[in-house]
Amino acid sequence: MLDVLENRDKASVRAYLEAGKASGLFAHLQEVTTDMWDGYVEATKEVFGDTVRITIDRFHVMKNFQEHLTDARRQIQRELSKDEAAALKGTRWLWLTNGENLDADQRAELEQLKQRFPRLRVLVEQRETLRQLFEDRRVADAPTGAARLRAWMATARQTGLKGLEAFCRTLENWLDKIANYFVNRASNGRTEGFNHGLRTILWRAFGMKNFAHFRLRVLDRFGQPKST
User: Fold this and answer.
1) Where are the domains of the chain?
2) pLDDT of amino acid 190
């Protein structure tokens, strides 16, 4: 970890990047991975222009999709009878979990539900197709990735579900940067691990009101402490 900023507004991020560029810290920077937050993306573009590739992390894309998938599932459930809706109570985890993470009984239960609720089966299939797209090593450049994502969107929109339509709009808005993932398959996984570590520090301290103290403690654990 290089540093901790007090907030994530664009001005603060840009000031940090400009200082790092001027000092030579980012002299060899080639790629920035981020979530779908305009402040991060715009600050990076303004400081580095086209010299740095900006990649929207796959983890955040799938997280966004899971949220919209839940909206689509609820839309379908609202159209069911009371008895059918009751049969789905407590099954949310089955619909959102990767198949390899389910045991045999859970997979069997999910298969029965998919047979009983074909529209929900379509949702699961759309989710799995998108996941496999990101894992397909034959997709090794941004243009091919963008083309595959557009093809996926065309199929997803045929379901007529508002949740999937909303996700497709998100994909369209960030398509070029999401497709950049296929170049190096860069991930923010380590950053998410750091975030968990930061929260652990806060939990152990029962919260910290002094940012300078918090920053030094974080850098002591995960980086190199610097004076403010």
Assistant:
1) 1-56, 59-177, 188-228
2) 81
Q: Nearest-5° angle of CA 40, CA 64, CA 148? A: 95
Q: Which of 179, 173, 222 is nearest to 201 (CA)?
A: 222
**Quick one: pLDDT band at residue 227, thresholds 50, 70, 90?**
low
> What is the pLDDT averaged over residues 162-190?
93
Q: What is the mean pLDDT of residues 56-84?
A: 87
Among 221, 134, 112, residue whose Cα is nearest residue 178: 134
Segments in 82-138 forming alpha helices (H): 82-87, 92-96, 104-116, 118-135
The whole-angstrom separation of Cα 166 and Cα 65 is: 9
Nearest CA-CA partner of 161 in 63, 67, 75, 70: 75
CB atoms within 10 A of CB 69: 22
Report the 10 Å Cβ neighbour count for 204: 9
Q: Is 110 exposed, middle or buried (0-12, 13-18, 19+ CB in 10 A)?
A: buried
Give Cα 38 to chain centroid, integer Å.
14
Whole-number pLDDT of residue 225? 59
Q: What pTM was estimated for this model as a whole?
A: 0.85
From the CB of residue 196, how many other CB atoms can be counted at a distance below 10 Å? 9
Rounded to whole angstroms, what are the CA distances from 69 to 25, 73, 81, 99, 180? 40, 6, 21, 16, 23
- Under 8 Å between Cβ of 131 and 98: yes
- DSSP letter assigned to residue 57: -
The answer to whether 50 and 21 have CB atoms below 8 angstroms apart is: no
CB 43 within 8 A of CB 21: no
